[in-house]
Amino acid sequence: TAEEMHAVVEGLRGTEGVSDIWVDYYHLTFVYNYNESDEAALKYLKAIDENAKKTDFDYSWLYYTEIADLLYKIGDYNGASEYLEKLIKKDHTNFGAYELQMRIIMKNNGLDEAKKLLDEFIEHNEGLDTAYVLETMYLRCAKEYDKAIELCTEAMEEYSSSPEINRQLALIYLLKGDYGKAYESAFAAYSNAVYIAQYYQDESSLTNQLYNTLYLCAYMES
Q1: Cα(33)–Cα(29) distance, integer angstroms
Q2: What is the rounded radius of gyration, in angstroms, for the C-alpha atoms of the chain?
Q3: pLDDT digits 0-9 by tens, 82-141
Q4: Predicted TM-score (pTM) of this structure
Q5: How far is CA 75 from the centre of its chain?
């Protein structure tokens, strides 16, 4: 049971050679494995953070993204932004951190601030598929749909098999009310993601966002 697993790991706390960081990290894995609450996950993430700050090692790779995602999920956007800023400062190629930070900014209608963040990302990642995706997101949120379609068309010349670029294009067509093209783009995104999963053993593109986009486009097109 979850209680038994937590008890076993907690029994290791304070023993020689066992870091509290890893004790709490394994607590966290049990929270996820047993579908416990977000509050329970946040408890252990904060414990990891507190103990990590007492060491001379950089453990940010272990939990910064995870805690930012969870804080965003429960609506603590300011808390999430603090961790995202640290991630971005360490790595200007971290698309996930930039993407989530932009979403938070957009929730506050901060188009100018979002544009500065976008420009910073493009400066370090110009020409990459992630740069196209982030700029497309910005244009979509700014309701510049035609520009977003032009950008996706340009991106497709080099990244035609990108699931996310196709998914972004599907979202734009949805907003424009062109449900036929939206479904075509969403299905292309899904097909590309399945191909990558089957032939490269990489299932990272088969996200809930992709499934939700495909289902919505299919429903609207029907």
Answers
A1: 6
A2: 20
A3: 999 999 999 999 999 999 999 999 988 889 999 999 999 999 999 999 999 999 999 999
A4: 0.89
A5: 15
